[in-house]
Design brief:
This protein has about 300 residues and is an alpha+beta fold. The chain is built from 8 helices and 14 strands. The chain is globular and about 75 Å long.
C-alpha cells in the first residue's frame, strides 16, 4: 500500500465531507465488474481489497480511496488480420471491392464477436484526500492516469475544485542550480541520478545513473546550457525519490527508519496493518511534501 509515484492536487476549497458522507457518494459509482460485451468498466472499490467493504478508509483526517479500471485486451494485430480475411472473402464471393465504410462495419462486428473471449486487464489506482491540508495525493505514474481518478471523483461528488499543484518558480531552474553547486535547502541532498535536457531539441539529452551529481562533468553539461528535468534527491535520510520538472514524484522510497517503526508495531489483521501503513506513510508525507514545495520556491496557490 506504500505509494511509489505521486501526483499532487490542490483543492480549491476545504474538503468538509465526512468519511461516511464520502462513502455514500462513492457508492453511486462503485465498481460493478465488466460484462462480457463491454470493452471497459470503471468504479470505486474498497482500498482494503478483499479484506474490506468500505470505499472510504479514514484515519487521522485523511481518507484513502481506490479506483478500479477494467479493460478488455483485444490485440490490434488480431483484429486487423481477421478484417483482412473477411474483406478478402466478401470480395471473392461477390466480385466487388469492399469500401472503407463497410470495412469499419466489419471491424466493429469482429471486435464485438471477440469481446466475450477477451482477457481483462484490471488496474487499481489509489489516492488519499488530506482534509487537514486540502490536498489530494494520487499514487499514479503519470498526470494523465491521476486525472482519471480526479475526473471520476468529480463525477461521484457532483463537483470538485482540484488542480495540479504548482510552484512559484520554474522547478527545472532550481534543480539545475542545485547541480551547478547551489546550496540545497536544509534536510535535502542530491541522489545519484538525473536527466539533463537542452532547450534546443538538437542540444541533446543526458541521462546519468549511479553518478556523483556534484562531479565536474555534470556541471559542464549545465554550463553548456542543459537543464535538469529529473533529479534524484534524499530528505532527512527518511525519504528518497526522483523529482520531475512537472512536480511528479517517482520511485518514492521510505527509508529503513520508517519501516522499522512499522515493524515495531504489531498488526493483528489486514485492516490493522493497512491502517498502520497508511498512518505512517501519510504522516511522513505531511512533512516531506511541504518541504519539497518550499525547496522549489513555494507553492503557488490557485487564489494567487
Amino acid at each position: 500500500m506504500w505509494f511509489r509515484n505521486l501526483q499532487l492536487y490542490r483543492l480549491g476549497q476545504h474538503f468538509d465531507l465526512s468519511p461516511e458522507e464520502l462513502e455514500q457518494r462513492l457508492q453511486n459509482q462503485a465498481y460493478q465488474g465488466v460484462s462480457s460485451m463491454d470493452m471497459s468498466s470503471i468504479g470505486w472499490v474498497p482500498p482494503l481489497g478483499r479484506h474490506g467493504v468500505q470505499l472510504a478508509q479514514a484515519i487521522n483526517g485523511r481518507i484513502m480511496i481506490c479506483l478500479r479500471k477494467a479493460e478488455k485486451i483485444i490485440p490490434a494485430g488480431v483484429v486487423k488480420q481477421l478484417v483482412e480475411d473477411k474483406v478478402a472473402e466478401v470480395e471473392a464471393a461477390e466480385s466487388r471491392d469492399v469500401r472503407r465504410k463497410e470495412k469499419l462495419r466489419i471491424r466493429d462486428e469482429i471486435v464485438v464477436s471477440l469481446l466475450p473471449r477477451a482477457l481483462t486487464k484490471i488496474t487499481d489506482l489509489y489516492a488519499y484526500i488530506d482534509s487537514t491540508r486540502d490536498l489530494i495525493v494520487v499514487d499514479a505514474p503519470s498526470p494523465s492516469r491521476a486525472e482519471d481518478l480526479i475526473t471520476q471523483l468529480r463525477i461521484s461528488l457532483g463537483s470538485l475544485q482540484a488542480s495540479p499543484v504548482k510552484v512559484k518558480r520554474a522547478s527545472r531552474e532550481i534543480m539545475t542550480r542545485w547541480l551547478d553547486g547551489g546550496r540545497m535547502p536544509q534536510g535535502f541532498e542530491l541522489g545519484g541520478e538525473c536527466e539533463l535536457k537542452h532547450p534546443d531539441p538538437e542540444g541533446g539529452v543526458i541521462n546519468c545513473k549511479s553518478q556523483d551529481l556534484a562531479a565536474g562533468e555534470i556541471r559542464n553539461h549545465v554550463k553548456h546550457g542543459k537543464h535538469a528535468v529529473k533529479l534524484a534527491i534524499g530528505w532527512k535520510q527518511r525519504v528518497s525519490c526522483v523529482l520531475h520538472e512537472d512536480l511528479s514524484i517517482k520511485r518514492l522510497q521510505f527509508d529503513d527508519v520508517i519501516r522499522e517503526a512499522e515493524g515495531d508495531t504489531v498488526a493483528e489483521d489486514p485492516a490493522s496493518k493497512f491502517d498502520l501503513d497508511f498512518s505512517l506513510m501519510s504522516l511522513e508525507l505531511a512533512e516531506f511534501l511541504p518541504d519539497v514545495l518550499d525547496a522549489l520556491g513555494g507553492e503557488e496557490r490557485p487564489a494567487e
